[in-house]
Request: fold
Amino acid sequence: MAGLPDSFNVVPIGYVRSQFSGYAPSSEMREQPSEIVVLPEFADGLMGLEPGDSIQTLFLLHRAAEVGYELRLHPGHNPANPIRGVFGTRSQYRPNFIAATIARIEKIREAPNGEGTIVAVTGLDAQDGSPVIDIKPHHATYDGPAP
Reply:
C-alpha cells in the first residue's frame, strides 16, 4: 500500500517470567502464576493499575519467530482440523508474532535488584523471556464484541 512503511520499530517495555520455557498448551499456562517485569524507564506507566485489575498484555512470540509461519495451517497443528488461514486461528506462528492475553493482576512490587517493577499475574499464556510490548487495562465496554 502506498505510504505504508515496510516495517515499524517496537520497543519492549519489559519481559515475562514464567515456568514455561517451551511449548505448553495455553490453558495450562494460564493456570500458573507468572510475572511481567516492567523495565525501570517504563514503570511510571503502571500508575493507576491495581491488584484485581484485568489487563490486556501484548507480547512477542519470540520463540515462534525462530520457526517461521504459514498463511494456511491446521488449527492446533492437528491434521484432523480443516486448513484455515492463520488470521482465523489462534496460532502462535503469525507474520508479526504478536500475541494478546487478558490477565489478572495479583500484586505489583518493586524488584529487589532494581531491574524494574514486577507485576504478578494469573491468566497469562506467555513463555519465559517473552518481550512485553504493551499493557492496557481491559474493559468490557471497549474490549467486548462489536455491536
In short: The chain has three helices and eight strands. The longest strand covers residues 98-110. Residues 26-31 form the longest helix (6 residues). The radius of gyration is 16 Å.
